[in-house]
Amino acid sequence: MTAISPHTQAEDGAAQLAALRQALVRTRASIATTVIGQQSVVDLMLIALMAGGHVLLEGPPGVGKTLMVRSLARAAGLTFSRVQFTPDLMPADITGASVLVPGADGRTQLEFRKGPIFAQLLLADEINRATPRTQSALLEAMQEGTVSAGGTTMDLPQPFFVLATQNPIEMEGTYTLPEAQIDRFLFRIDVPYPDQDVLTGILTATTGTEKDKLTQAMTASDIIALQGHVRSVPIATAIQQAVARFCLATQPGGETADKDVSRYVRFGVSPRGAQSLVISAKAHAFMADRNHVSVADLRAVLLPVMRHRVQVNFEGRAANIDIDKLLLRLFDQTMGKL
């Protein structure tokens, strides 16, 4: 048997990496044929996909949140399922339930019927329309990738992603997501209204005879391979230490807490939040075709990773504290001259 030389293995690895990068570029271009504008939102969704995290999209109705998720599923070649969250939705409507079915011997027996959560990409539409009890049904699935029912734990298909949409909390009929659940989202992405040029393009593309040109450009195995490459992107120890300093600075009552944090912040960034920042920065660096994490990568994903994890208290809300500005100031202070 002829041994494979290290040189040949390196060439094969480089070729595979180049093919994955090309697949990522094609996926991005394919989504752009259907989702007009919102390129920064689409890029963040792709970064979350590579980082293996879940995404919460927040914006007013009608700005294309559901369309973006559907387009991502089609372009990435993932099995797709959608759940419309409503106040009367039950946990079993998401995870599935055991039902009585006739057996071969004529006797009835219990059989588990899988719910819509058994898909590679789950769209939880208007998640904050459902009650907290139903929202919590997603907790185990989002964190562990499993569903427990009838004393049995079942694995979800891999890769598994939850992309949830929610309307602004100020709108009627919404329920605030519990802190334990919202912390499990890698990103919270704000989806704004389009500007005049983008809106004109949307009207041109969607009110005429032009057909949908979106095509599949990636597979589930490509995504799993991308996740492995993202985790191998190196990050300097000094940058990791700066991330740790930043997270500690957001925690009220800590020795290094900022004075505004101590006064206005209810709770700061957890270790999970620090992990999310680093893995997201690695994915951002990979997408930018860089082989290491820079401070610019961290800053690029800072707000989507952190804005839903740092919560202001009553005094902070009364003072109209801008959490984005506070986070950016703390980030610049703790990163120093890196």
TrEMBL record:
Pfam families the UniProt entry points to: AAA_3 (PF07726), AAA_lid_2 (PF17863)
InterPro entries assigned to the protein according to its UniProt record, in alphabetical order: AAA+_ATPase, ATPase_AAA-3, CbbQ/NirQ/NorQ/GpvN, ChlI/MoxR_AAA_lid, ClpA/B, P-loop_NTPase
Domain called AAA+ ATPase: residue spans: 51-195
SMART domains to which the protein is assigned, alphabetical: AAA
Organism: Pelagibacterium halotolerans (strain DSM 22347 / JCM 15775 / CGMCC 1.7692 / B2)
Gene3D superfamilies: Magnesium chelatase subunit I, C-Terminal domain (1.10.8.80), P-loop containing nucleotide triphosphate hydrolases (3.40.50.300)
Protein name (database record): Methanol dehydrogenase regulator (MoxR)-like protein
TM spans (from-to): none
Family indicated by similarity: Belongs to the MoxR family.
GO molecular function per UniProt: ATP binding; ATP hydrolysis activity
Keywords, sorted A to Z: ATP-binding, Nucleotide-binding
Xref: CDD domains: AAA
